[in-house]
Design brief:
Blueprint (H helix, E strand, L loop, with lengths): L8 H33 L4 H15 L2 H11 L1 H18 L6 H15 L2 H12 L2 H32 L2 H22 L11 H9 L14 H5 L2 H30 L5 H7 L2 H22 L4 H15 L12 H29 L5 H30 L2 H21 L18
Helix pairs in contact: 1-4, 1-6, 1-7, 1-8, 1-11, 2-5, 2-16, 3-4, 3-6, 3-16, 4-5, 4-8, 6-7, 6-15, 6-16, 7-8, 7-12, 7-13, 7-15, 11-15, 11-16, 11-17, 13-14, 13-15, 14-15, 14-17
Length: about 425
């Protein structure tokens, strides 16, 4: 059966992926936005809440497993399995009645939701030529910001008009709808019946020949022996705690330190994520600006990361301002800065590694990022009652500057990105 072709199909594919990322972050953000209600209702302490979050962070560190499944089964089937799983697990949160139950459910949720970033990077590598990949990656990562942005008003509405259990049921049901859409519409570029021959040729022509996969299964050990992997993984370790702080701790911070009520949290907690939406696109804009001025792709990405790291220093001032509005404004700037640098370093997995390795690389780098989150969450949970949030905001203000140094020091450009070929080791 002949299907009508869809013009610009790759952007439709990215739109569906972005929608999936929205759902992913909406479900993972539901607990944090319901936490000011759930914790006192179930007598859960701040330290116990940190352990709940850490169960999620521990299992989401298994992203390499998710990446391997996606590289092996393919995006269509593999991502659908994960999406159906995280939706059902999210709905099951409504049955929890203790912190231990929440911890186990969050652990299973992290295992399933860890598939999102490897899936997005794999699709970006397969569906887009190199010159469009930064912008496409930015669109995909907008989903994280939008999902986190939608959670405060949606969860607040569900709690105010129904109960906290309904918030998990609603967000999980949305995930089931998206998983069905994905399974129905997605196909790989080589097999998609609605992809025109012209667009397929355009995508293929823009792919770097030195990064084409050879059909073999990716080797995690081989990847981890490369300095380029650590050059993007270590900055993720240092950067990702910012996003987890905004996603998991912001509602509690606004409630306990700034004394916001549930309605005020619903009206303001989404603002840093709106700013983060803009940050998702700014990284690609900076890269394009630098490339037009003769800067190579890898150096342009490093430059964009550095700009974001400099802007991130604003987070150090959050704990010192007296005005709640000023604190929220600084958090918004932090959200913008974080996504500027985060999208940039995440996209570099598709610039530096072969197509059949991208999902595994993204998964391994995601593991490093979530290891940083695990450490940071533990420290907050144990120490925040004693020392407050200010030292943690100070840390977030400087960690990405260290990440920028690592990125410039460790990452080496592929030969195809260099302006002049490198001499071989045997050259005279």
């Amino acid at each position: 059966m002949a299907y009508p072709k869809i013009r610009g199909l790759r952007w439709w594919i990215m739109s569906i992926l972005m929608l999936g990322s929205i759902v992913n972050y909406l479900t993972r953000s539901t607990l944090s936005n319901a936490a000011p209600t759930i914790l006192p209702a179930l007598h859960i302490t701040t330290e116990q809440y940190a352990w709940i979050l850490n169960f999620f962070q521990f299992t989401i560190m298994l992203q390499p497993l998710a990446g391997f499944v996606l590289d092996t089964l393919g995006l269509k089937v593999g991502f659908a399995i994960f999406a159906f799983a995280w939706s059902a697990i999210s709905m099951a949160h409504g049955l929890a009645s203790s912190w231990q139950a929440f911890a186990w459910l969050r652990g299973f949720l992290g295992l399933a939701e860890g598939s999102s970033n490897p899936a997005g990077m794999k699709a970006t590598a397969e569906w887009f030529p190199a010159k469009e990949r930064g912008f496409a990656g930015g669109l995909f990562n907008i989903g994280a910001s939008v999902g986190s942005m939608l959670a405060p008003p949606l969860v607040g509405f569900a709690i105010l008009y129904y109960n906290w259990q309904s918030a998990f049921v609603i967000t999980g049901a949305v995930g089931l709808v998206w998983a069905t859409l994905w399974l129905w519409f997605y196909h790989a570029p080589a097999k998609h019946p609605r992809l025109s021959d012209e667009e397929r040729a355009y995508i293929a022509a823009g792919q770097e020949k030195h990064l084409q996969g050879d059909g073999t299964r990716p080797s995690a050990w081989k990847i981890m022996r490369q300095r380029n992997f650590w050059g993007i993984a270590l900055p993720r370790f240092l950067a990702d705690p910012t996003w987890s702080t905004l996603t998991f701790w912001l509602p509690l911070y606004l409630s306990t330190v700034r004394h916001f009520n549930l309605k005020e949290i619903a009206l303001t907690a989404w603002l840093p994520f709106l700013a983060a939406d803009l940050g998702c696109m700014s990284g690609g804009v900076i890269v394009a600006f630098l490339q037009k001025r003769g800067v190579g792709l890898i150096d342009a990405r490093r430059g964009a990361f550095t700009v974001g790291a400099c802007m991130m220093t604003c987070m150090a001032a959050v704990g010192f301002v007296a005005s709640p509005s000023a604190a929220v404004a600084l958090l918004c700037l932090g959200g913008f800065a974080h996504q500027t640098l985060s999208v940039t370093v995440i996209t570099m997995s598709s610039d530096l590694f072969k197509r059949n390795e991208v999902a595994t690389v993204a998964g391994l780098a995601g593991t490093c990022g979530n290891a940083g989150v695990l450490v940071f969450n533990t420290l907050i949970g144990v120490l925040v009652v004693r020392i407050g949030y200010t030292p943690f905001f100070l840390g977030l203000g400087v960690l990405d500057l260290v990440g920028a140094v690592v990125l410039w020091t460790l990452v080496r450009k592929p030969n195809a990105d260099d302006r002049t070929p490198r001499p071989s080791a045997n050259a005279a």
